[in-house]
Specification:
With 331 residues, the protein is an alpha+beta fold. It folds into 2 domains: 225 residues, 3-Layer(aba) Sandwich (Rossmann fold); 96 residues, no CATH class. It is built from 8 helices and 19 strands. A 6-stranded mixed beta sheet has the order 6-7-8-3-9-10, sandwiched between helices. Strands 13-12-11-14-19 form a 5-stranded antiparallel beta sheet. The chain is globular and about 75 Å long.
Length: 331
């Protein structure tokens, strides 16, 4: 098990990471999700041993890694830019780490073949990496990371340079590989769809702090804060004021919301209005439709008051509509 405890890091006097703590269990994939500048890549580099924290502990199976060089940590790394050696063919790229460990020729060959099979690149061993597509190059990078049989895999925006359909295909394959091999993994991304597809547990970072942690389903259902709800694009975030128990005055009128938190009359809160029609709900949003955008199998109707909702059928521009919705209380 990897343990990250109390990690602090500053740069030019400004905090990059502020008391970061989490664990990665056997066979578990966690995702560090956050916008650029949130500290996720710096954290990954510290775990890899490429940077040192100002304070805190990185350990694996109880062993403190503070004095362990990066190449001795037995962690695999996969980057967005592939980081392949252009002068080496596919076989030699995948075999590079194995040769550094002075494995026998037969062992190297067996591991390269096994890793290439795992990423569906059997028969590519003699190809030049510069002649491969972006997706194929990223598969080579993954095979190279898998070949030494690392005790932890780390991915830093690995699919950021690929188009959407290829990204989804590789993500599904990567998830399958991680489940089959049971190698624990840390996956860094700014893309919530990637994070929710691959992770067993999501850690959302903001300004160097973990602001929400949980399973993808739990985080989606209960963001707990306006920042997380807005970052994940869960719906309309509006201001409300407590006027009575479970009653909140907003620009859309009074909403009735059961809230787990204790509030006093006059308290200011943020509310999440889920943008999907919810029959049986008491709360209603309304507005005049100013724009309609088709998104996959539904239509996003944008109102003149800035609210939006997803509908199965496209309303007309200028039409005034009201929709029953689910409303939740945020911190």
């Amino acid at each position: 098990m990897l343990e990250v405890r109390g990690i602090f890091k500053t740069y030019e006097g400004k905090p990059l990471l502020n008391d970061i703590s989490f664990t990665v269990g056997a066979g578990e994939t966690i995702c560090l999700l956050g916008a650029s500048g949130s500290g996720k890549s710096t954290l990954l580099r510290i775990i890899a041993g490429l940077e040192s924290p100002d304070a805190g502990l990185i350990s694996f199976n109880g062993q403190d890694l503070a004095n362990t060089a990066p190449h001795l940590r037995d962690f695999g790394l996969v980057f967005q830019d592939y980081a392949l050696f252009p002068h080496l063919n596919v076989f030699d790229n995948v075999a590079f780490g194995l040769k550094m460990r002075r494995l026998t020729h037969d062992d190297i060959s067996r591991r390269v073949v096994s890793s290439m099979e795992m990423v569906n690149l059997t028969g590519f061993e003699k190809r030049e990496v510069t002649a491969l597509s972006g997706g194929e190059q990223q598969r080579v990078a993954l095979a190279r990371a898998l070949a030494p049989r690392p005790r932890l895999l780390m991915f830093d925006e690995p699919l950021g340079a690929l188009d959407r359909s290829l990204r989804e295909d590789l993500l599904n394959e990567l998830r399958s590989i991680l489940h089959r091999t049971e190698i624990p993994a840390i996956y860094v991304t700014h893309d919530q769809e990637e994070a929710f597809m691959i992770a067993d547990r999501v850690l959302i970072l903001r300004n160097g702090e973990i602001v929400r942690e949980g399973t993808p389903a739990d985080v989606w259902a209960n963001p707990k804060s306006a920042f997380v709800a807005e970052f994940l694009g869960l719906g309309n975030i509006i201001a409300g004021e407590v006027v009575a128990k479970n009653k909140f005055q907003t620009e859309q009128g009074i909403f009735t919301v059961k809230c787990a938190r204790e509030h006093s009359r006059g308290d200011k809160v943020k509310l999440l209005v889920r943008p999907v029609s919810a029959k049986g709900e008491a709360n209603v949003i309304w507005g005049v439709v100013v724009d309609v955008v088709f998104q996959q199998d539904r239509f996003k109707a944008i109102f003149d008051n800035g609210m939006y909702v997803y509908l199965n059928k496209a309303p007309k521009i200028g039409q005034r509509i009201s929709v029953k919705v689910k409303v939740e209380c945020l911190a």
